[in-house]
Amino acid sequence: MTIERIRPEPRMSDVVIHNDTIYYTAVPENLDANAKDQTAETLAIIDAVLTEAGSDKSKILDATLFLVHKEDFPAMNEAWDAWVSPGNAPVRCTVQANLMNPKYKIEIKIIAAR
């Protein structure tokens, strides 16, 4: 059994890979952007991390999207639909949640194959 931790810190690792399965959670960097733009930016961050880990969005198995305002659901879906790999949509759920940084409109957790 191998566990690879990318950019580990005392509290958490940026990415964890176990048995060729990638675990990652992304948040937006531009906290002044609207929900659609924060979602698109977060998905682009996920693309970069998956590439670094030797994978891509077509290999995402599961995605959990944490959305602060339910009114942002259509905007979030617009960004998601433009991004998701055609024919390779993962299992997905969206949860309304109060995120720790009040400027976050979204946080996305993924599990992907390598």
TrEMBL record:
InterPro entries: RutC-like_sf, YjgF/YER057c/UK114, YoaB-like. CDD domains: YjgF_YER057c_UK114_like_2 (cd06150). Pfam families: Ribonuc_L-PSP (PF01042). This is RidA family protein. It comes from Rahnella contaminans.
